[in-house]
Specification:
Distance between the termini of chain B: 23 Å
Radius of gyration of chain A: 21 Å
Strand content of chain A: 15-25%
CATH superfamily of chain A: Metal-dependent hydrolases
Number of strands of chain A: 18
Oligomer: heterodimer
Mean pLDDT of chain A: 95
CATH class of chain A: Alpha Beta
Distance between the termini of chain A: 27 Å
Shape of chain B: globular
CATH superfamily of the largest domain in chain B: Aspartate/ornithine carbamoyltransferase
Low-confidence stretches of chain A: none
CATH architecture of chain A: Alpha-Beta Barrel
Structural class of chain A: alpha/beta
CATH topology of the largest domain in chain B: Rossmann fold
Largest sheet of chain A: 8 strands, mixed
Largest interface: A-B, 17 and 25 residues
Radius of gyration of chain B: 19 Å
Number of domains of chain B: 2
Helix content of chain A: 25-40%
Mean pLDDT of chain B: 92
Largest sheet of chain B: 5 strands, parallel
Chain lengths: 436, 315
């Protein structure tokens, strides 16, 4: 006895297969059962065990694979007043995401089997987007003792990262990459020299005038270039996260040319803002890490996306409590929520601007991140047998980002007050339909 | 006093956002108040019944005294809150501190803070007027205004005048306010100092940058000499005080090679014998004490203007 969901008449865009035309999609018992033309009573005939067919009219909507996020801080354990796994998973649904990789910089960190299992359990209990843990590469994210990578994979770890580790010993990263290379998982790392990276905003003209200490792009570029070299040495898959500068894009491109296994991502908000916004009002919602850079850097990020050097776009979702964001700019913590705006930012700042076609842009939110997380055997594409995860969105819907419009517990979005185009209307996952 | 330009700002956060006309309006208003200082009875009633709060999170002698005296000459009630005595050490946020003090009926908050943008944060959170008395390495607008006021006393119109700022530009809020104000009034601005203390980004503001003082010593009409902070040496930004003095110290030998009527300024406090020698600081070309006197008039003007803007335009 099972339920079928029939999504009728939408523009089905599946980057994995290149499919981009109006069609129906059939989901039976939570898995894709077909793309094409379906009528309800045939569903009953072909799938004898189906007891109920829920039909969704998708006319005027894009039907895409459920979005997959590589980079969300969900707070739990340790910061659950800001966000929890269960609620974060619900926020993700509102943004069109059906799968989220959460980062290990929790308190305590996700560096042991019990913590990884905890994430999975919270995710299953909640029943919204699937949350998968990115586990720490080293114990306590200190860059010294390795975590039990083999057992963590068994417990559900989809990738490994020390996520801005506390201590930065470069040799430690190389060692960890060598060990991780035995397993089929990516290492995600962004380990900057603390002496270069201290600051509150992008180093340069704007920081000079704002009187705020600058974070040099060189710090990021060294970190990315070094990790690329380590990946070559270790024979490991390195995923370069949250690129923001021209030379970071170049470093990744160079490594890819040398056939090093390197993939890269950009966070959606880095495509939308330059460091000019900071000085307007010292608004701490614009304080993110890495910081917003220059227009030239954004042009290079877009170029990297077009050339395929950057294969993924992440939300960089990072809730911060309002009392923390109400501090002086130099003292406030970094972070911006992004799960609910990422799709709209991609449509507004990449597709509508003519930089990427819709199908190419969606690849960076679906099939490509699925591959980085080794989830492509069940997610990221609309293909018979895979998990029936879908994001149905209106690519022309204009909406204003307001506190009320965001489901996220904290409202630290740099987009507050701005108009964006593109909004998820329905999400299908776990055999359920979420109407948004 | 001109009344041609209306001042509509309830806050003074920096000179960057001001127009040329607004700057001139403050300076003209200040001229009027300077005249009051020469009378035997030095009090004016402009802020009678108003409360001015000095909220200082950083040590300051002259700026705080100058604002206090300005408020008192305008007949305002004055409250001083300094960091040691405030709740900042107990973990109360700046915004909460501001709101609490505002609830006691404060009309104008004069704030000095280590963090750039702190006055902007207060201005956004409070109905009271906010006057920036120096925020981190961002701006120190009343110092910029009083420097410009002093230069105008000497030269009148500053268009085409050549003004040099010497020293640690990177960490100087005084330099930033001077640059904004002087550029708006059409002056030529030069920055002189070691490369580690002058960010290249300043070039984009249309100023000259010189690393060699002696090459341009007879080019400038004014040398505004900034205090060099000893802790920068420990951070490896310059090797020693002795080397700094050798390269950039203004002494009588260098003074003799400057234009004869050159104006020497310093926002204080002075490290005598380091960035400026005793003879130069106290010499005929120095207007350092006049800067202090003018500061009072400028701050009276600022307090009156922001309060009347709030009264007329509701902020």
């Amino acid at each position: 006895m099972s339920k079928a969901i029939l999504i009728k008449g939408g523009r089905v865009v599946d980057p994995a297969s290149g499919h981009d035309k109006v069609a129906d999609v059939l989901v039976v018992a939570g898995k894709f059962a077909g793309i094409g033309k379906f009528i309800e009573r045939e569903v009953h005939r072909q799938h004898a065990h189906v007891t109920e067919v829920e039909t969704l009219d998708a006319k005027g909507l894009v039907v895409a694979p459920g979005l997959i996020d590589l980079r969300a801080h969900l707070g739990e354990p340790g910061h659950d007043s800001e966000e929890t796994i269960a609620h974060g998973a619900e926020v993700a649904i509102h943004g069109g995401f059906t799968t989220v990789a959460c980062l290990p910089d929790t308190d305590p960190p996700l560096d042991n089997v019990a913590a990884a299992l905890f994430v999975k359990r919270q995710s299953e209990k909640a029943g919204f987007a699937e949350v998968h843990p990115v586990c720490a590469l080293t114990k306590n994210r200190e860059g010294k003792e390795l975590t039990e990578i083999g057992q963590l994979i068994e417990a559900g770890a989809v990738a490994f990262s020390d996520e801005m580790r506390a201590s930065d010993e470069p040799g430690g990263l190389l060692r960890a990459m060598r060990y991780a290379a035995m397993f089929d998982r990516a290492v995600i790392e962004y380990a900057q020299d603390p002496g270069l990276a201290g600051g509150a905003m992008n180093a340069g003209y704007e920081a000079t005038l704002a009187g705020l200490p600058g974070i040099s792009g060189v710090a990021e570029e060294l970190a990315i270039a070094r990790a690329c070299m380590f990946a070559r040495e270790a024979g490991c898959h390195y995923h370069a996260p949250k690129l923001t500068t021209r030379n970071s894009v170049r470093a990744v491109k160079r490594a890819q040319k040398l056939k090093v296994r390197v993939t890269a991502e950009v966070c959606a908000h880095h495509l939308a803002f330059t460091d000019e916004v900071v000085r307007r009002a010292y608004d701490t919602n614009f304080k993110v890490f890495p910081p917003f850079r220059s227009a030239n850097d954004i042009a290079w990020l877009k170029r990297g996306l077009k050339e395929g050097v950057i294969s993924c776009i992440a939300s960089g979702h990072h809730p911060v409590a309002p009392q923390e964001k109400e501090l002086e700019f130099g003292r406030a913590p970094f972070g911006a929520v992004g799960l609910e705006t990422a799709l709209a930012v991609v449509i507004t700042n990449l597709v509508n601007s003519g930089d990427l076609s819709l199908i190419d842009a969606l690849a960076k939110l679906t099939v490509n991140p699925a591959a980085v997380l080794r989830l492509n055997h069940k997610k990221g594409a609309i293909s018979v047998g895979l998990d029936g995860d879908l994001c149905l969105f209106d690519p022309n819907a204009e909406w204003e980002v307001t506190s009320q419009a965001l489901t996220s517990r904290t409202k630290n979005s740099p987009f507050l007050g701005m108009q964006l185009t593109g909004k998820a209307r329905f999400v299908v996952t776990r055999g359920r339909v979420f109407e948004l | 006093m001109t009344t041609a330009v209306a001042w509509k700002r309830k806050d003074l956060l920096g000179l960057e956002g001001l127009s040329r006309e607004e700057i001139l309006h403050v300076l003209d208003t200040a001229s009027g108040f300077k005249e009051i200082s020469t009378r035997s009875i030095k009090k004016a009633p402009a802020l009678r019944g108003k409360v001015v709060l000095n909220l200082f999170f950083e040590p300051s002698t002259r700026t705080k005294a100058s604002f206090s005296l300005a408020a008192q000459r305008l007949s305002a009630d004055l409250v001083d809150v300094v960091k040691e005595a405030s709740s900042a050490v107990k973990g109360e946020s700046l915004v909460d501190t501001g709101r609490n003090l505002e609830a006691m009926g404060v009309d104008i908050v004069v704030v000095r803070h280590q963090q750039a943008g702190a006055p902007a944060l207060l201005a956004r959170s409070l109905d009271a007027c906010v006057v920036n008395a120096g925020d981190g390495t961002h701006e120190h607008p009343t110092q910029g205004l009083l420097d410009i006021f002093t230069m105008r006393e000497k030269f009148g119109d500053l268009a085409g005048k050549k003004i040099a700022l010497v020293g640690d530009i990177t960490h100087s809020r005084v330099a930033r306010s001077n640059i904004w104000g002087l550029r708006k009034l059409g002056a030529e601005v030069g920055l002189i100092g070691p490369k580690t203390l002058i960010p290249g980004a300043f070039k984009d503001l249309g100023v000259n940058i010189h690393y060699n003082l002696d090459e341009v010593i007879d080019h400038y009409d004014v040398f505004n000499i900034l205090r060099i902070q000893m802790e920068r040496q420990n951070k490896g930004l310059f090797p020693s005080v002795r080397e700094y003095h050798y390269l950039y110290g203004i002494d009588s030998k260098r003074l003799s090679r400057m234009k004869p009527d050159v104006v020497i300024m310093h926002p204080g406090p002075i490290n005598r014998g380091i960035e400026i020698s005793q003879e130069v600081a106290d010499g005929e070309n120095s207007v350092i004490l006049r800067q202090v006197a003018n500061g009072l008039a400028v701050r009276m003007a600022v307090l009156v203007l922001v309060q009347s803007a709030k009264d007329t335009h509701g902020g």
